[in-house]
TrEMBL record:
Lineage: superkingdom: Bacteria
Name of protein: ThuA-like domain-containing protein
Native species: Rhodopseudomonas palustris (strain DX-1)
InterPro entries, A to Z: Class_I_gatase-like (IPR029062)
Length: 200
C-alpha cells in the first residue's frame, strides 16, 4: 500500500472525507503536522501533497531535505503561489492582468489527472473565473506544461523531473479541493491514482 503525506500548518486538516472518492485505490493518506517534517517521515512517504497554506519559509529552510526526497524517487504535488521557492525548479509567483481573458484556462498537453475534466469547469466556478488559477509561475527547463492561462499562455500547471522523482506544480487553490457537481470532481481520485501508479 502506498502512503501519501498531506501536511497541515496551524489548523489541523483531515482527509477522512476523501475515503469514498478514493475507493479501490491502494493507498493511505496521512495528515501530519508540517513542523514534524524530517528525513524519517519522508522516508515513509511515496508522495507529498503540499497545499497553498503552508509555511513556505519553513519549507525553504528544508529545501535540501525535499530535494533529496524527490531525487530519490518521491512525487510532490504543490498548490498555491510560491513566495519562497522551496524545491529546485520552483520560481516566485507572477501576477496576471485584470481581465477575464487572462483567467481562461487552456490545455497545452493531455494528462491522466485531468482526463475528462472540462476546461470551462476549470475556468469558472459558480460562474466566477479565477478559482482554479489567477497567477502563474515560470517552469524549469524541460518541464511539461499541462495548462496555461490567458492569450499569453502563462503556465499554470506543469510537471518536471528532479532525479528519479517528479514535481507537479499547480499555481492555484489546492488541486485536491475541487469536487463539486461538475467534471472537476474527477481531479482528486485521478490525482491520487497518478501518485500511486507504478513507476518505471
Amino acid at each position: 500500500m502506498k502512503t501519501i503525506i498531506r501536511p497541515f500548518c496551524g489548523h489541523r486538516t483531515s482527509s477522512a472525507a476523501w475515503a469514498e472518492r478514493l475507493t479501490g485505490l491502494d493507498c493511505s493518506i496521512r495528515d501530519v503536522d508540517l513542523y514534524t517534517l524530517d528525513a524519517a517521515l519522508l522516508g515513509s512517504a511515496d508522495a507529498l501533497l503540499i497545499g497553498m497554506h503552508m509555511d513556505q519559509r519553513f519549507l525553504q529552510a528544508n529545501t535540501a531535505l525535499l530535494d533529496d526526497y524527490v531525487a530519490a524517487g518521491g512525487r510532490v504535488v504543490i498548490s498555491g503561489h510560491i513566495a519562497h521557492p522551496f524545491l529546485t525548479g520552483l520560481s516566485p509567483v507572477q501576477p496576471l492582468g485584470g481581465g477575464i481573458a487572462d483567467l481562461t484556462v487552456s490545455r497545452a498537453a493531455p494528462h491522466p489527472i485531468w482526463d475528462g475534466v472540462a476546461l470551462d469547469d476549470l475556468t469558472f466556478r459558480r460562474g466566477v473565473a479565477g478559482f482554479y488559477g489567477h497567477a502563474w509561475h515560470s517552469p524549469p527547463e524541460g518541464a511539461t506544461v499541462i495548462h496555461t492561462l490567458g492569450p499569453d499562455a502563462r503556465p499554470l500547471d506543469f510537471i518536471y523531473r528532479v532525479g528519479r522523482g517528479e514535481v507537479l506544480m499547480h499555481g492555484g487553490n489546492d488541486l485536491w479541493s475541487f469536487g463539486g457537481d461538475d467534471s472537476t470532481r474527477r481531479l482528486l481520485p485521478q490525482l491520487i491514482a497518478w501518485l500511486v501508479e507504478a513507476r518505471p
